Amino acid sequence: MTAWFFKWLPVCFGCHCRADRSFFYKGRPFPLCARCTGELAGILVLLLTWVLRHPSVVWSLCLLVPLIADGMLQLCTSYESGNLRRLVTGSLFGYGLANLLLLSSAAVFRWGMETGLAWRNA
User: Fold this and answer.
1) What is the C-alpha separation between 85 and 33, in angstroms, rounded?
2) Which tens digit of pLDDT belongs to each residue from 34-89?
3) CB-based contacts of 21: which residues, under 8 Å, 6+ apart?
4) Which is it for strands 28-29 and 24-25: parallel, antiparallel or unpaired?
5) What element of type H or E holds 29?
């Protein structure tokens, strides 16, 4: 099972798996870098809490901004963020992006149901 995670998690996330940008456990790097680990954590937290409460589209878009800003800052300057910042910005991004996916899926489902009922009753 562990071998499967180490092989497929980086593929699913498109992760570069650089050791200098990864957390280590017992001398072994995580299968994902710190930022992708945060994204996975954000997605999992959202999936566990979405039914109880979830942010609006505007708040979800705001949650994407820190990762984009941090990535652009690193791209355009010599600044290099640490793994803790990557984990936090990745978590916010994963939570916001997964929420946008679920909100849009729910909206499309509602639209499809309403359209189908309208056609059926026409």
Assistant:
1) 12
2) 999 999 999 999 999 999 999 999 999 999 999 999 999 999 999 999 999 999 99
3) 33, 34, 35, 83, 86
4) antiparallel
5) strand 28-29
Is residue 36 within 8 A of residue 87, CB to CB? The reply is no
Distance CA 107, CA 95 (A): 18
Place of tokens 């489902």: 109
The CA angle 14-68-33, to the nearest 5 degrees, is: 35
Residue with tokens 């001398």: 27
The owner of tokens 């945060």 is: 38
Instruction: Report the distance separating Cα 97 and Cα 80, nearest Å.
Output: 24
Residue 6 reports pLDDT greater than 80? no
